[in-house]
Amino acid sequence: MIKLIEDLFLVFTRLLPPELSKNFTLKLLKVIYNLNLIGLFKSRKNFGESEIILNSLSFKNRIGIAGGLDKNAEYFHILNSLGFGFVEVGTITLKPQSGNPKPRIFRYVKDKTLLNSLGFNNVGSVKALKNIKKFKPKFDGVLGISIGKSKNTKTKNAWQDYLHLMDYFYLEADYLAINISSPNTENLRELSSQENLEFLLEKISQKKVQLIDMYKKNTPIFVKLSPDEKEENLKNLIEVSEKNSIDGFICCNTTTDHIYPIAGGMSGAMLSKKAENMQKKVAEFKQEKSILIASGGVMNASDVKERLINSADLVQLYTGYIYQGNSLLKKALKISSS
Ligand SMILES: Cc1cc2nc3c(=O)[nH]c(=O)nc-3n(C[C@H](O)[C@H](O)[C@H](O)COP(=O)(O)O)c2cc1C
Fold first, then answer.
1. Which residues are catalytic?
2. Is domain 46-337 classified as CATH 3.20.20.70?
3. So what's the pLDDT on residue 92?
């Protein structure tokens, strides 16, 4: 019965414009959660409930939600109660931003793909931190907080945004994700050039030393990579990151390499092969101790299995979850625990 309701709901929401559909679904989930009915939608079997310790973080399972679904940290506790072992909120910028003009999410249903040009629309660091403090007591997972530079911040000043954001979120985050790979904020990807990256990550690692000293807490920091990175630069990017005490990599963000007549980042099934190939490269280039989080075109159980076989420690869902809902989460939990 619940499966039927879920399936009908997915059909219904597909009739709405994509951004409205996403917001409506999250709001409805909140109503269901507040009515104490969310348990009905959770997998009955506790697949994957065997603890995984990575970098002193304890994960209940290997399946998480990727950055950008819960941009303002309003739903992470609800996603966790559905079964996700970790949730990455954000990307959050220092000040509130409205993002790029609408429409800015497009569905290509036959291709099981999304195209988005959102541009870090979010409520900003002050409000997001309030949300995190409010909902964290109801959260029993690992909380990632993704941070990014504001639209109006010039590349040369971007490091200041990241350092301020670290001040805001270091203590509350179980891990921080440095987003330098979204294609929808002008010039953001410039930060991954050798010179800019070295400068940024040096600043971040110096800041981390101060924060460890201040809070007596070592919050892991991951870098989220672009699938459009050239192989030579990728190798260097990983080397520079590891030299600056970065703890792992999220592989990968959306790609601008697509066939659709709209500017923006593509996600979903059409990204799958590219993300998988890139992950293999990252696994080859990185040190063993660096954590690898797979993201990008994880659409079914065999994608989850493939990513785990190819050295991913954790796997994030986004577009697959938008298209398939909880049935994908259940399959992912099952395969990742077998
Ligand atoms: C609508 C939308 C918004 C996104 N926003 C963010 C974001 O704010 N920060 C981020 O790091 N990634 C963002 N992403 C990228 C996803 O986290 C993910 O890396 C990417 O979509 C590839 O995974 P998928 O193919 O499973 O969707 C967004 C993706 C989509 C589709």
1. 182
2. yes
3. 98
